[in-house]
Amino acid sequence: MAAPHLLMIMLLATVAAATTNADETLVDVPDPLSLEQALGFAETHPRVRAEQAATGSALDLPRAQPLYLGCHSLAFSGARDNDAERDVAWSALLSSTDAQRLEITQRFYDVLLADLSFARDNEAMAVAFIQFDRAEAREALGQFSPLRTAELQADYQLIRRQRAASEAAQRVTRAMLATAMGHPTSLPRQLITPALDTSTPESMDLDTVVNAAIEHNPEVKTLMQGRSDAEQALVRMAVRERALELLTRLQLLQVIAEQARSESDWRDLKLDESRTLYELEAKADLGFSMSQQTKARRDEQETAFCHALTRAELNALQGQTP
């Protein structure tokens, strides 16, 4: 007969195996992961299954804010900070599946933005370290003051701190994407940047969007079903307000995209100039120009992500697949 402690170990092992999330053992998250593949996990997410199976009020736990991608804040620069409800893609006006698809999309873009932010800060730290290192060498020769060296060291340590935060954000954003897909322990390592349509969409009329939402959006239909005239009017106003904000955001993002593109083009030319001066040994700011180019590309990509996400939100509001 097995010893009591051995029986306990076997029992604990059996319980642990039985309580393991079946999805985690049966489904592998692709690596590299595309946005289309990530969206394929939406319908089986526990949040979606719980809402579809609920007979009363569904358990609706809060979702974490994205770390980087806040499209409302980007578009409406100067608006009040920490507007959490407006800076997320999901909403109470959408079905659980569509809301989950939009969350996955925003989390996916957030990971890509985290990677670009790390690249920006990594290059900036390298530049700051070279400047500080040279200052120390010149101070030893009596060519630099200790005050200037200390200033450059402080600058380097500040950027080093930012780089550490960006590196940590790469893991956090991946964890939030994994959770949005319903597989919190399967953090995707490599993501495939999707080909985004950055063309200007056909002019969408506000009333057309609102009417489409009322006619085709299943969640809006449910909200209006069996309601009084006053309650239905409130739902219509909520839909109209959301549609207006999304349409206005698209227009603003077009302006931001032009500015970001102009900045990126200028940084490309500035890098070419710095390379020429570097080769002639006339100037040594090549690293700085490279880091600024990386920053401009990151900002340009952020605008493209917000443009694509906002269009997906408009599609979902009108009852189309986001």
* General form: elongated
Mean pLDDT: 84
Estimated helix fraction: 55-70%
Query: In DSSP terms, counting alpha (H) and pi (I) runs of 4 or more, how many helices?
Result: 11
Cα Rg: 25 Å
Find the structural class using helix and strand composition: mainly alpha
Concise synopsis of the structure shown:
The protein is an all-alpha fold and 322 residues long. The chain is built from eleven helices and no strands. Helix 6 runs antiparallel to helix 7, helix 8 packs across helix 10 and helix 10 runs antiparallel to helix 11.
Features:
single chain; 322 residues; disordered N terminus
Structure notes:
- With 322 residues, the protein is an all-alpha fold.
- The protein has helices spanning 4-18, 22-26, 35-39, 46-53, 71-75, 96-140, 146-180, 206-216, 218-224, 229-279, 286-317.
- Helix 6 (96-140) runs antiparallel to helix 7 and helix 6 runs antiparallel to helix 11.
- The radius of gyration is 25 Å and the shape is elongated.
- Mean pLDDT is 84; it is low at 1-25.
